[in-house]
Amino acid sequence: MTAPSDARPRGTRLPRLARRRQLLAAAQEVFVARGYHAAAMDEIADRAGVSKPVLYQHFPGKQELYLALLEQHSHALVEKQREALESTDDNRQRVTASFRAYFDFVAGEGEAFRLVFESDLRNVPAVREKTEQTLQACAELISDVIRQDTSISDEEAHLLSIGLVGMAETSARYWLSNFGTIPQEAAEQLIARLAWRGISGWDLTRGG
């Protein structure tokens, strides 16, 4: 439940971009706590400390607000994956860094991962398209590395990358649901070791 005391004070004028960030932060809190369908624009406005008309000035409807959040966090996940893969030329370390990107994402503040991985709007075409694009973007980054460093075909590299992304997402979410049983670094290393034992079976065309 959102207690009235959680609402932010009204009346402060902010630059447009700062106001947008404020509204998105408030919407994230409500969407994560309630899910899309139970969330109300009135509650989001109260949480942000603005009037409902101010909220509608920035976002014409609840779905547009949700899609803006989804875009923001999907982009963040893809960038985490890109940075992980570019952080080293050592392929074993790349595997670990790639899994760490997913674990860091699900462990991040505000449970943003729920908007990407656990949306109750998966049947809405725009939401489904964005989540699928995010999966494919992460997989393509990994696939590029596999293609560069092995002699397997493009199709095989893409299939492997889809499998790795699925492993990363599923294991990271399961780890979070059992938070505290295994330290994050140990969990990352465990899953990365499993993945590396499989990937390292292919002959490398350059340094590993």
From TrEMBL:
Taxonomic lineage is: Bacteria, Bacillati, Actinomycetota, Actinomycetes, Streptosporangiales
UniProt xrefs under InterPro entries: Homeodomain-like_sf, HTH-type_TetR-like_transc_reg, HTH_TetR, Tet_transcr_reg_TetR-rel_C_sf
Membrane spanning stretches: none
- Superkingdom of this entry's organism? Bacteria
Which residue ranges does the record assign to the HTH tetR-type domain? 17-77
Q: Which UniProt keywords apply?
A: DNA-binding, Transcription, Transcription regulation
Q: Which residues bind DNA?
A: 40-59
Q: This chain belongs to which protein, by name?
A: TetR/AcrR family transcriptional regulator
Note the Pfam families from the entry.
Answer: TetR_N
- Record GO biological process: negative regulation of DNA-templated transcription
Q: Which organism is it from?
A: Streptomonospora mangrovi
Single GO MF annotation:
transcription cis-regulatory region binding
